[in-house]
Amino acid sequence: MANLQRDPEVNLSAASALAQNPQPAIPSLPLHVMFRLGLFQMGLGMMSLLTLGVLNRVMIDPNLLAIPATVAGGSLAMHQLVSPARVWFGQLSDAKPLFGTHRSGYVRLGSVLFALCIFLAVQVVWGLGQSFARSGWSLATYGWTALAAFMFALYGLCLSACSTPFAALLVDVSDEHNRSQLVGIVWSMLMLGIAGGAIGSAVLLRGLDLENLQSTINRLFIVIPAVVILLGVIATWGVEKRYSRYGSRSILAGREDQITLGTALKVLTASRQTLIFFSFLALMTMGLFIQQPVLEPYGGEVFGMTVAQSTQLNAFWSIGVLVGIVVTGFLIVPRLGKQTTARLGCLLVALSFGLTIAAGFTGKPQLLQLCMILFGLASGITTNGAISLMLDLTAAETAGTFIGAWGLAQAMSQALSTLIGGALLDLGRLLFPTSSVLAYATVFGVEAGVMLLAVYLLGRVSVAEFRENTSRALTKVLALELEG
Question: Where are the domains of the chain?
């Protein structure tokens, strides 16, 4: 950003405007507001658990809807496959205020819309399950499958419309001295949301069977999304207007219409490091989430867990992540650095999958729960290192666009993870029809290999090179916009 000061006309104009209209100092973000912002991320964690934990298990379980794993995984993956829209929503929040704010309006409207969409998507799932039970693969079943994919895609668009501007808001309201603290708090609360959603869902799902399945799940998908909407309003109320530094950081303050999508994309693609880090995030995310669509079925089929018990595996995992993020932020990153920390986390994740496979041969649920805690710890170390790098690789002028790009990498790979996880399970069952453990080991083994590929790409990431190239491009592109 210092390169922008090399344009004397821009520098003189900005100094003159500041002298004539001095701006009041923006207060630093207090600790209690950081926790309040984390409430929305907590809500997103609860929604993630609902879709990829509860609903996925209900769809795949042979004793419930018995929808093929590939169909279930593919339908759920649609809410991530529309994630290219994240870049557009991020740029839109950079350029076009909604309800008087750049970020908060998108967060609130998107929350209401995704709550409505996910409830409608669940109603389509009932039709899909009934069609499979009645006639198998029929014309009606193909129609229900397409409708389910469409509804989850619509849900994903609404989710992108609020989650990307929210992440950009975190950049806007923080400074160098408190940004890592804010990220640690907010991402920890995401894990608490997953854990809380797992525990709450387990309570609501006790005694679940085919007779009360539909009414119980419908109630769950009304109550929790309504809570998430409320959390979003509380989290963002008054924060942006009081604490946002977006306007003061941009030489285009008051002229946000100049930040076109084309401008943002030029800045985004200015450095080859963008592609390298994008690829690392994609592989790292796949290495963390390929197991997600098969974890609950693994607990049920191999370890004999009930629906409620297998759902609680997410709680063990999220507790491990929570501890891993906190310990890493205070102890590991200061000693090892961001990239070394991320590399260590990736290697530990790969190791934890080997232990998860070994636990399957024992059939003891307690060992699987322990493996989930270890996997969570490794995931927390990886996540902390990767988020720290992500913040280093974000330009303040186009924060929404960069956040959208990093979110795109994660969302697309998470979508592929959901699809790949289901497909690998089906493949494993074909290869090992008499061994459920080996069928699931196919999934976990591939996932470990993907994480090792992420380690290789991480070694090629250079923050210094990214900053140099992006700063140069930002100066050039924005100067041309101002002249226009």
Answer: 33-243+257-483
- 356 vs 475, residue with greater confidence: 356
Rounded-to-integer distance, Cα 387 and Cα 398, Å: 18
Query: Tell me: the pLDDT tens digits for 179-194?
Result: 767 777 888 888 788 7
**Whose structure tokens read 């490091």?**
273
**Is residue 476 pLDDT above 80, yes or no?**
no
Q: How far is 282 from 47, CA to CA, in rounded Å?
A: 22
Q: How many CA atoms lie within 13 A of 53 on its CB side?
A: 30
Burial bucket for residue 462 (CB in 10 Å: 0-12, 13-18, 19+): middle
Whether 311 contacts 440, CB under 8 Å: no
**CA separation (Å) from 225 to 395, 411, 439, 483?**
33, 20, 34, 47
User: What's the fold here for domain 33-243+257-483?
Assistant: Growth Hormone; Chain: A; (1.20.1250)
Least confident of 240-249, 382-391, 431-440: 240-249
